[in-house]
Amino acid sequence: MKTNSYAPIEAREDGIRIVLAGAPLDNDNRGVEALGTSVATYLAGAPSVERLSMLDGGWGVRTTPLPDSSAVVERIGVRNSRRWHRRESWTRVRIDQALGGLGNPLVARLTQADAVVDLSGGDSFTDLYGPQRLDTVCAPKEAALRSGRPLVLLPQTYGPFTTTDGRRRAERLVRSATIAYARDSWSHDRLLELAGPDAHSSRFREGVDVAFGLAPQRPDDAIAAHLDALAGEVVVGVNASGLLREVSAGERFGLAGDYIGTMTDMVKALVAAGAYVVLVSHVHGKHPLENDSAAFDLIDDALSPSERRRTWRLDPTLRAARLKWCIARMDWFTGSRMHATIAALSSAVPAFGYAYSDKARGVFGTCGTADQVADARDIAGAEAVEQAMASFSARDEVRRRLEDHVPAVVDRATEQLDEVLAAAQAWRAEGSAEVVA
């Protein structure tokens, strides 16, 4: 063993200070928002925490209350920007760190932090989305290490890495982290591969996705009333990913067939089976190439008038906690967005994942339902619809499995945050942390 010494913090009797990166609250992706809201609400409300500073893509430093909570967080804008002279630019942050801070508020918060915790958007610590996205994901991790602070990688997926440079960068960051969590057993294996043969279990841990701990919030009365009026119906939720709707996306992610055609046929089959289908967007905003509503536009155009009358689009502007409240009232759910299905799983709603990466099977596996996932890279069309309908038919049995597994997963979602808080308190008291070489 060796001991890593961290930059000193002025002695104080108050609580610990944490910087949270990789999950901004104002995000068009409700999955990323669910991650940030879950962690921020828990950490900011902990008696031991004096200040929680969240990094986001805004400008300047702002203090705001968390939604539906008495907790308050500090939000600090930082981004990859061509306006490198601005303090919110990562280029400027690197320069200011090298020159002692120069009054940069982010540099000050990093220097004062008892821990820098990072989520990487849950599944963005990969070069699959290109070098610019990887730069954005790595920037706060590298800034934490430059400031000499303990870096904690909260539960997430690691990889895939398709380039030598991307993998080496990830290996360096993982091995420099004081603690790193994976969000399922499959991701834990990938984490250990990056950590190398000397990886020690005290540092590289298996956890669960923090969004399992997101507390649902009731939406406005009109939406709640619409769902209440469906009592007696078999209500199912369908999430289609706008990211996968273009032909180019099929080629990029290696999909087995026509994604929109498959999802359309799935909706048609569910309606034919007597279900009432609620269409659930989980990414909504100003980036049309990823907007789930655009995928539903294509599906809607392919439905007959009678099929359309058996569907309803949930308000795509709903925030993550309110979406979870709605999903929790469904009898079955299917989706391609990972965190849309997590909203179902964590509510013990039987779910079927139709995804394009290995991450879904690992997360479903934490709930004992790894068999409820189909890989869109392997099957499409009639075969995918058949598997989805088999899952729909087995929903009662799957619900029983979830009721057995999910409570422990939800408990683990907060236990791992308690571990981080205890470690941060110890690091502050000692001024160092033991790290296996």
TrEMBL record:
<keyword id="KW-0808">Transferase</keyword>
<dbReference type="Pfam" id="PF04230">
    <property type="entry name" value="PS_pyruv_trans"/>
</dbReference>
<feature type="domain" description="Polysaccharide pyruvyl transferase">
    <location>
        <begin position="92"/>
        <end position="357"/>
    </location>
</feature>
<dbReference type="GO" id="GO:0016740">
    <property type="term" value="F:transferase activity"/>
</dbReference>
<dbReference type="InterPro" id="IPR007345">
    <property type="entry name" value="Polysacch_pyruvyl_Trfase"/>
</dbReference>
<protein>
    <submittedName>
        <fullName>Polysaccharide pyruvyl transferase family protein</fullName>
    </submittedName>
</protein>
